[in-house]
Amino acid sequence: MSNVRPETMARITTPELARAFIGEQVAAVRAQVGDRKVLLALSGGVDSSVVAALLIKAIGKQLVCVHVNHGLMRKGESEQVIEVFGKTLDANLIYVDATDRFLDLLAGVTDPETKRKIIGGEFIKVFDEEAAKLSGISFLAQGTIYPDILESDGVKAHHNVGGLPEDMQMELVEPVKLLYKDEVRVVGEALGLPHGMVYRQPFPGPGLGVRCLGAITRDRLHALREADAILREEFDRNGLAGKVWQYFIAVPAMKSVGVKDGKRYEGWPAIIRAVNTTDAMTATIEEIPYALLHHITDRITHEVAGINRVLLDLTPKPVGTIEWE
Ligand code: XMP
Predict the structure, then answer these.
(1) How far away, in angstroms, is 325 Cα from ligand 1 center?
(2) Mind giving me the DSSP string for 177-202?
(3) 109-134: pLDDT as tens digits
(4) pTM: predicted TM-score of the whole model, two decimal places
(5) Ligand 1 atom closest to 203 (CA)
(6) Is the CB of 246 under 6 A from ligand 1?
(7) Atom 11 of ligand 1 has which residue's CA nearest to it?
(8) Using one digit for the tens of pLDDT, what is the confidence trace for 77-102?
(9) Residue nearest to ligand 1 atom 4, measured at CA
(10) Could you give all domains of the chain from N- to C-terminal order, each with its CATH number?
(11) Is any ligand 1 atom within 6 A of the Cβ of residue 313?
């Protein structure tokens, strides 16, 4: 398949068009792969999930999915990968819980770029080790999408933690590389993936690592994950999940004094960030109803150990980037 999207290629907007695309790709993958084996790094993000579902349909157990849990996933994400791919779709799934490896390496590291490099580098190492344990793998599948190709000289290169070792000499299988994100989602739904997985908000490769500011500690990371889960749950319940482009919690490495049950209660602040954008180059702030903000504050401060304040970030991009890092 060429890397240029033909001008005649119709935008995939309906289940019918998605099914036609799936049919074509299933045939193409079978022709390319034959009876050989394919390896895929399955993060649980939209692109790799859709590729996994497509390849499972095309070649079943000839696909080997490796899901590396770097310990920086949001609450429930690795569990969902295991549930959907390991159980429902009965895929050949290797689950690697590398949490300790990542968190041990990150201990005491405060510089954001160094944190990113450690996470990206370790991801490749873990994946490489798993690949080395397998035999007879001929292909590497990737969730490359068309914007990745268009931007391949630009920003996203350093963005993708899924970037794999250059010396991995395998032919690539990239069935959605000519699709735009919205088309990948339509295809994902036609493949029967859960709506929440296919329409999930963007999540950076280094995960909560860029939102647990400064040196990551397990207790603060845990608090961040729990607070973030509450924010997501409340956005879901209140109709904001499908409307707001990206929303999350960041927790800085600082404490302030509070009071709980009549006692001094030092804790971290949870910072709410909820932004809208079309291309992530600039972003505006979502106006969250005050009643909901009060409710979220109440839940986070009561349910999450270690958090004693909730703050709202009102800064558009520029000048604030979307992530805090
Ligand atoms: P910033 O913070 O630069 O983020 O305004 C712009 C968008 O990019 C996302 N982001 C990433 N996405 N891998 C990704 O796939 C990454 O390493 C990464 N870092 C930031 C960020 O969440 C926002 O949507």
Answers:
(1) 10
(2) TT--HHHHHHHHHHTT--HHHHTPPP
(3) 999 999 999 999 999 999 999 999 99
(4) 0.94
(5) 22
(6) yes
(7) 204
(8) 999 999 999 999 999 999 999 999 99
(9) 322
(10) 15-198 (3.40.50.620), 211-312 (3.30.300.10)
(11) no
